[in-house]
TrEMBL record:
<dbReference type="Pfam" id="PF00213">
    <property type="entry name" value="OSCP"/>
</dbReference>
<comment type="function">
    <text>This protein is part of the stalk that links CF(0) to CF(1). It either transmits conformational changes from CF(0) to CF(1) or is implicated in proton conduction.</text>
</comment>
<keyword id="KW-0472">Membrane</keyword>
<keyword id="KW-0406">Ion transport</keyword>
<comment type="similarity">
    <text>Belongs to the ATPase delta chain family.</text>
</comment>
<keyword id="KW-1003">Cell membrane</keyword>
<dbReference type="InterPro" id="IPR000711">
    <property type="entry name" value="ATPase_OSCP/dsu"/>
</dbReference>
<keyword id="KW-0066">ATP synthesis</keyword>
<protein>
    <recommendedName>
        <fullName>ATP synthase subunit delta</fullName>
    </recommendedName>
</protein>
<keyword id="KW-0375">Hydrogen ion transport</keyword>
<keyword id="KW-0813">Transport</keyword>
<keyword id="KW-0139">CF(1)</keyword>
<comment type="function">
    <text>F(1)F(0) ATP synthase produces ATP from ADP in the presence of a proton or sodium gradient. F-type ATPases consist of two structural domains, F(1) containing the extramembraneous catalytic core and F(0) containing the membrane proton channel, linked together by a central stalk and a peripheral stalk. During catalysis, ATP synthesis in the catalytic domain of F(1) is coupled via a rotary mechanism of the central stalk subunits to proton translocation.</text>
</comment>
Amino acid sequence: MTARDAAYAALDTTVDGITTDARTAEELFAVVDLLDGQPTLRRSLSDPSAADANRARLAERLLGGKISQAALSVVTAVVQTPWSSANRLVTGLERQGIRLALQSAHREGRIDDVTGELYQLAGTVDANRELAAALRNAQYPVAAKRDLLNRLVSGKVHPVTAMLASRAVKARKRTFALTAKSYVEMGAELAGEQIAQVTVARPLDAERVARLKSALEKQVGGPVNLQIEVDPAVLGGMNVVIGDDVIESTVAARLEDARRQLTHL
């Protein structure tokens, strides 16, 4: 475990002891946006030469009465954590907001819905070159990108999905799609699930999805989070990737195997 991973784990434990909900996540995201636009403030809150308690008092003085006590408790926990830079502090705070949003969906029993919607949205953006380019364009205001995404998902996805899609436009992981998929991974980890990336030629109905999920969970011996992608190029059957394991049973793969065998005759 790296030093950063250890710091994240310790902070996660502290924040998990605070009673929070999806509203807390929204408040944390508002603080993240404030710090993104205030370099002097974020440097002060991450200043390694200042005592942890002094950084916490500064956060309380600035934000007390403006956000809930739960959100303020998370912020003070974050600012008392050592960070290598001011930007790392902001990333660490946003990560807590993402975790809290996903945890609220998990408590509702909707974590698979949220991660599935985020995965599908990432695929939709990747498949639409104009949309992907707009979200990558550094000259396009963040507010305009969020409005674009909101019009795409409004009323069609779980509120937590919409909230996290709005966060992903900042592309902390280089692109919107990669950032959204990192949320999927975090959601699966919070739920104690392994991600199974499934590629099929045609959409699966609910009964087939349930059978596939059950079969994969028996195979891996634990909960599985299905992320299904439709790709007509596979022709038939399906490709399943779980961690380093690949289960390949597509028609395209079998034809490719046959072609390779013929070339060696």
